Amino acid sequence: METVNPPTGGPGLLTDRYELTMLASFIADGSAGRKAVFEAFARRLPEGRRYGIAAGLGRLVELVEGFRFDASEIAWLRREGVVDAATADYLATFRFRGTIEAIPEGDLYFPGTPVLTVSGTLGECIVLETLVLSVLNHDSAIASTAARMVTAAGGRPEDGGRAVIEMGSRRTHEEAAVATARAAYLAGFASTSNLAAGYRHGIPTVGTAAHAFTLAHDSELAAFANQVEAHGTGTTLLVDTYDIPTGIRNAVTAAAAHGATGPGAIRIDSGDLAEEAAKARALLDDLGATSTRITVTSDLDEYVITALQDAPIDGYGAGTRVATGSGHPTAGMVYKLVAIEQEDGTMRPVAKKARDKASVGGRKRVYRSTRDGILAAEVHVVAGPPPDGFAPAQVTVVDHGTVVHRPALVETRQACASALASLPAEARSVTDGVAWLTPVVLTPATQGA
Amino acid sequence: METVNPPTGGPGLLTDRYELTMLASFIADGSAGRKAVFEAFARRLPEGRRYGIAAGLGRLVELVEGFRFDASEIAWLRREGVVDAATADYLATFRFRGTIEAIPEGDLYFPGTPVLTVSGTLGECIVLETLVLSVLNHDSAIASTAARMVTAAGGRPEDGGRAVIEMGSRRTHEEAAVATARAAYLAGFASTSNLAAGYRHGIPTVGTAAHAFTLAHDSELAAFANQVEAHGTGTTLLVDTYDIPTGIRNAVTAAAAHGATGPGAIRIDSGDLAEEAAKARALLDDLGATSTRITVTSDLDEYVITALQDAPIDGYGAGTRVATGSGHPTAGMVYKLVAIEQEDGTMRPVAKKARDKASVGGRKRVYRSTRDGILAAEVHVVAGPPPDGFAPAQVTVVDHGTVVHRPALVETRQACASALASLPAEARSVTDGVAWLTPVVLTPATQGA
């Protein structure tokens, strides 16, 4: 039997063992209840990237709410010697009662930006580390990539751009696929092929047929006739199984049998897409199918989409490259202790000194300023008020264990579009660049306090 | 409220919409019950790779067994217009009753190798496509990468190599993390940091402490004393939070307080690892801690591990690079219809002609030959018997809906080690190369039949 224990519903074990080992040590020496602050941030953006899009918060909040350990899991942890009896008791009644503040989902982040700040007891903060990072690193990598593809397509469809459809499910883990669809949608994709993403998150789903559909029929025309019969003339016909011009003629013929000048759209999934799209447009127009749209797919990314901007294309399907972060499949965020309660009740800033991984101690509040609607600066303030003209960039998401921020995905999607619009065109460029903004850390020393 | 519908237990919706759209068309024209054969294969290996390791089969089999659509999901599919009434009825009672043959998990694959062959009705084969590819593409990408890291470490610990620990959970989606740990373990990793992987799959888990643990204490020595107190002198102490030589001295002091010459191991997570390991070994020996092992972590991959082979290191922790496939996060397999039943009951071979994505029609049986224990050739036979001296490479996994092949993960892990041992050293090299073996397709024409 392959599975030893079936997965439980709870996310508690989606955790690195050392979180629980550390918890056991803290419980043993009485420090698990000390107050602590942790920050999740990326030391740097992926090579060539100019900004990051924070994503995953909505999923994370639900996972934190459900973060429990059931009896079977605790028995296993005991049997394996991961935790002692005292730690097992702690986990049996565990609920996160701390506070989470974060950059809202869909908003920008830069090197060092505290994307998520967790404050609570040392014990409850430490056990969340792995889950926080798994969710933020995956979803932010996808959203950051998707935002570049949407930019290359001229923005969201509602902003005048061409639709980009997420269809990468088969290129990534089956559950990562659902999160990928969600992250791409919030970054401005029009829709997804993934049904679970539609069911769970209300994301529009699309999809018509694969090459297998045509191959399963005795002829391409028979396949198209069947598809139009079953799904109406508004359907999208995949025309490149055999020969594209013949495919287009068959598509128009199949639609014509139902009184339409052409199908809703054709899809081309191979060849030189710019050239094939131009030839397809000319042929469709020639055949009178002037309102038939052209969708292209096949290893599209932000660079290919940019190169296709002058081709007569109405929509793009992005698969592998969006699901794998277009070369950067993880956001590289880390989760670091920045302050710990002292014996006297005050908070002590802490920081790692390791030469290539140094961090700044103290809890950092994030503020941003804009000039003429364009993001101008970001500061991280360790103590005291922000400089004049700066507004807080984090929101309170969980307040002492209660979720207080749970926007609908459409709101998050709008927030992302607004955030991208707050960048100058240069910062949105998909060409290689450096972080458009370097946040400044204001410590009591640099503030002259 | 962020979630529209909570995830259901079943994997049915982890599927691209077009699978169900095609199913609806097939049901409408009466062809859903025609017999069909689909093959999952990679057209090519990722750039530079010499072999692939097939992985995910064990997970996939359980997902196929549970592939159902519950009432809530079907109601949603109807509401969204994804399926019509007849298709909804079909899905309500869906169970996969077809046959799956596959390259056993942990075994090798090359360009074009039918890694998985599904035969059954057109309807039941088509709805599995997305799930088959999600699982195989993710898990095979990880296992193929992990096998290279294990090779760089000199093989599995039981084969004389240095232990490689999987610790990439925080760099990938939280569920992909569990599958990553599983794929890495079957490819020869010694253990994982991921607790769910231990709980669900019985994989050994390890983990001790992060930098936060040291930072949370008033001094490094206090942290180490606490850890040794809670976990014994066999624990691994992370010595690079502040200054490595001081950290090592503190580690030995903390162990000495409990009568040991040193802790079980120290971990170094920053700096020039070869240099730091050499200095650490010299210092440990100097302090009498000659049996304290040295583990290193920090962006390790097959190249860094190779470069560290002469350093006095006892174990490696690999994170980001194994969880993201070391530059190749997906295996790029596709799932193609290769044969379909005709009106007269015979099977017609089918193939796509698109110029850059052409495929060979007909169901291909996979056979391999060895010479002196080394894999010598692979043929794909469309019809007739294999050439002399060739043995079948696929096994029957599901026989008309019944799972008949469910090896324990330890067996799969042994199979992978044996498969790697069947490659010549040159083919196992982690340097860039081309597929070590190019399978030959034997069609009735090429067989002279």
From TrEMBL, chains A, B:
It is an enzyme of class 6 (ligase). Pathway: Cofactor biosynthesis; NAD(+) biosynthesis; nicotinate D-ribonucleotide from nicotinate: step 1/1. Transiently phosphorylated on a His residue during the reaction cycle. Phosphorylation strongly increases the affinity for substrates and increases the rate of nicotinate D-ribonucleotide production. Dephosphorylation regenerates the low-affinity form of the enzyme, leading to product release. It catalyses: 5-phospho-alpha-D-ribose 1-diphosphate + nicotinate + ATP + H2O = nicotinate beta-D-ribonucleotide + ADP + phosphate + diphosphate. InterPro entries: Aldolase_TIM, NAPRTase_N, Nic_PRibTrfase-Fam, Nic_PRibTrfase_pncB, Nicotinate_pribotase-like_C. It holds the Pfam family NAPRTase_N. Coiled coil: none annotated. It comes from the Bacteria. Residues 13-137 form the Nicotinate phosphoribosyltransferase N-terminal domain. Its EC number is 6.3.4.21. Keywords: Glycosyltransferase, Ligase, Phosphoprotein, Pyridine nucleotide biosynthesis, Transferase. One of its GO terms (molecular function) is glycosyltransferase activity. Catalyzes the first step in the biosynthesis of NAD from nicotinic acid, the ATP-dependent synthesis of beta-nicotinate D-ribonucleotide from nicotinate and 5-phospho-D-ribose 1-phosphate. Belongs to the NAPRTase family. NCBIfam families: NAPRTase_put, PRK09243.1-5, PRK12484.1. This is Nicotinate phosphoribosyltransferase. It comes from Nocardioides jiangxiensis.
